[in-house]
């Protein structure tokens, strides 16, 4: 009899354990109560779970062990949701970077084809020149070379009150900028060590065999194009060498764009040379594919448009067609193409300091990298990848850092 009683007690205990661990169908009110506790404490202790049962009458029919299982499952679902979201974000980044690399590969192939064509043309010219024996032929070759060196005729001066003339300059600037950003107008040399990837700074290159100094960068950010354009237009917030930027005039265009006449001053890299200033036209517009473009160039006698008055203590530098191409990505975010191309007028620098300015590719590169780095930092702060403790605001820290550097 005692043996049968023991077996009966074991069966009853096993049945009770199975009943306590079986799936419980929670009502919406019970789930809401548990979610409120989960929001405050995702992993409550045993005492906290028992207290929850006592304080919530709607949970009185649920065992503490079942509530423990509910919190375990809830944490597991939250972890899976975060991991799925992270993988989706990585997949979007990889898709966008793959598209960017394919476009860069196509551009490089076009550049190689262009260089091969130029190489063949130069070899043919050298062969023709070496085969020439008469003086008249030599004179003809010299004269043809002089004709090629003649400057192009200057554009007539445009009136500041003539929007059509300024729009023509703006459209020309847009075409030249896009040819540098995505075309083969400049032979770009990619910087060593800048490995492209979804979480890298981007693809950075410097100019080769072009007037002035130029730099180019391509990268991905998790911000919408309109937000990126807003940040890029606020140059003093991210370019530390920028002393001031004044928008002297703003003219809307018929295609929904904006033309701005701007004056910018920069700090001098040394007290032995004068600082540089720029008088430019900035054109903001959108393309048919939804991309935003902010392009800029100096207004001079050769480019046309109103020329800005000189300022004492500054040497007028020239900004060749430069700017930003911001393209939307599928699923959110943007692909940014940045081009900075400047001529700092090194002949106004003392002879001792000319090597500093002539090797000033780092100036254009610094502008390009500063813009891309600033946008990536804001994107990471917005997405929560960078967190600051103690209630410190990222914008306040950035402003303090910029003032400290200046």
Explain what this protein looks like in three dimensions.
The chain is an alpha+beta fold and 406 residues long. The chain has 2 domains: 27-111, Homeodomain-like (Arc Repressor Mutant, subunit A, Orthogonal Bundle), CATH 1.10.10; 163-385, Alpha-D-Glucose-1,6-Bisphosphate, Chain A, domain 4 (2-Layer Sandwich). 48% of the residues lie in helices and 20% in strands. It is built from 10 helices and 11 strands. Strands 1, 2, 3, 4, 5, 6, 7, 8, 9, 10 and 11 form an 11-stranded mixed beta sheet that branches. It is elongated, with a radius of gyration of 33 Å. Keywords: Coiled coil, Differentiation, DNA-binding, Homeobox, Nucleus, Transcription, Transcription regulation. GO terms for molecular function: DNA binding; DNA-binding transcription factor activity; lipid binding. This is Homeobox-leucine zipper family protein / lipid-binding START domain-containing protein isoform 6.
């Amino acid at each position: 009899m005692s043996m049968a009683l023991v077996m009966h007690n074991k069966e009853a205990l096993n049945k009770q354990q199975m009943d306590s661990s079986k799936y419980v169908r929670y009502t919406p009110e019970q789930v809401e109560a548990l979610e409120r506790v989960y929001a405050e404490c995702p992993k409550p202790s045993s005492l906290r779970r028992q207290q929850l049962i006592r304080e919530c009458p709607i949970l009185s029919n649920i065992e503490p062990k079942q509530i423990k299982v509910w919190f375990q499952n809830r944490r597991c679902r939250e972890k899976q949701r975060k991991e799925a979201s992270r993988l989706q974000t990585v997949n979007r980044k990889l898709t966008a970077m793959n598209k960017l690399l394919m476009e860069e590969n196509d551009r490089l192939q076009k550049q190689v084809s262009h260089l091969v064509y130029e190489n063949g043309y130069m070899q043919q010219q050298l062969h023709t020149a070496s085969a020439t024996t008469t003086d008249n032929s030599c004179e003809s070759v010299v004269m043809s070379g002089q004709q090629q060196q003649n400057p192009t005729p200057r554009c007539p001066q445009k009136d500041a009150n003539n929007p059509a003339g300024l729009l023509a300059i703006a459209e020309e600037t847009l075409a030249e900028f896009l040819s540098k950003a995505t075309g083969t107008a400049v032979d770009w040399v990619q910087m060593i060590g800048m490995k492209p990837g979804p979480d890298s700074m981007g693809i950075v290159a410097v100019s080769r065999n072009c007037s002035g100094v130029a730099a180019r960068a391509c990268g991905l950010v998790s911000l919408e194009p309109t937000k990126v354009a807003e940040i890029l237009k606020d140059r003093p917030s991210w370019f530390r060498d920028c002393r001031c930027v004044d928008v002297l005039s703003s003219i809307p265009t018929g295609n929904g764009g904006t033309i701005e006449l701007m004056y910018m001053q920069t700090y001098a890299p040394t007290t032995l040379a004068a600082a540089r200033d720029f008088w430019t036209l900035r054109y903001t517009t959108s393309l048919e594919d939804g991309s935003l473009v902010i392009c800029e160039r100096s207004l001079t006698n050769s480019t046309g448009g109103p020329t800005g008055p000189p300022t004492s203590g500054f040497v007028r530098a020239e900004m060749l067609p430069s700017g930003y191409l911001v393209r939307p990505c599928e699923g959110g975010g943007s692909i940014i193409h940045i081009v900075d191309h400047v001529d700092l007028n090194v002949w106004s620098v003392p002879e001792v300091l000319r090597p500093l300015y002539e090797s000033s590719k780092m100036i254009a590169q610094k502008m390009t990298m500063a813009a891309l780095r600033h946008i990536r930092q804001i994107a990471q702060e917005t997405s929560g990848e960078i967190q600051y403790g103690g209630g410190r605001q990222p914008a306040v820290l950035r402003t303090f850092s910029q003032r400290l550097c200046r």
